[in-house]
Design goal:
64% of the residues lie in helices and 0% in strands. About 4% of the residues have low confidence. By secondary structure, the protein is mainly α.
């Protein structure tokens, strides 16, 4: 699949109204290899539109860092979320980033001023912290019975 085709599909997906973006529902469960493999607790912190867009992007961008960034966006840690936003901004074409950022509450995203490799290294080093943060969120949600 050509990157241009994937980016065109992502652009179509991100040009919807924010209310429609947030209300997308899953018709069928995706195959394990097709999804970003997040558990049901984490699904409550995102929506199917964002998951779908990141799955599309994983067709043309390195999957592992993209998956880490996606999970980082689900954390409640501002630094981890910021690093994830900075990585996503650094790898996306500007037009797609501008369209996506309005939908994922990237208002506090740092402008991608650092070199992409530096942001990628920080993101990869953040993976364990992201997983720990998400595990804590899972425990809190489980304890509250939501």
């Amino acid at each position: 699949m050509r990157a241009e085709d994937v980016y065109a599909a992502v652009l179509r997906e991100t040009r919807v109204e924010k209310a429609l973006w947030q209300d997308q529902r899953l018709i069928d469960e995706p195959a394990v290899n097709d999804s970003l493999q997040i558990d049901e607790v984490l699904h409550t912190r995102t929506n199917r539109s964002m998951e779908h867009v990141f799955t599309l992007l994983s067709l043309v961008l390195p999957r592992a860092p993209l998956q880490i960034a996606f999970k980082g966006l689900l954390t409640d840690d501002g630094l981890l979320r910021g690093t994830s936003l900075e990585y996503v901004e650094s790898v996306l074409p500007k037009e797609i980033w501008n369209s996506l950022s309005r939908l994922i509450d990237a208002t506090h995203a740092p402008a991608a001023a650092r070199p992409q490799e530096q942001v990628l290294q920080e993101l990869l080093l953040s993976n364990q912290s992201i997983e720990l943060n998400l595990e804590e969120l899972r425990k809190r949600v489980g304890a509250s019975g939501e």
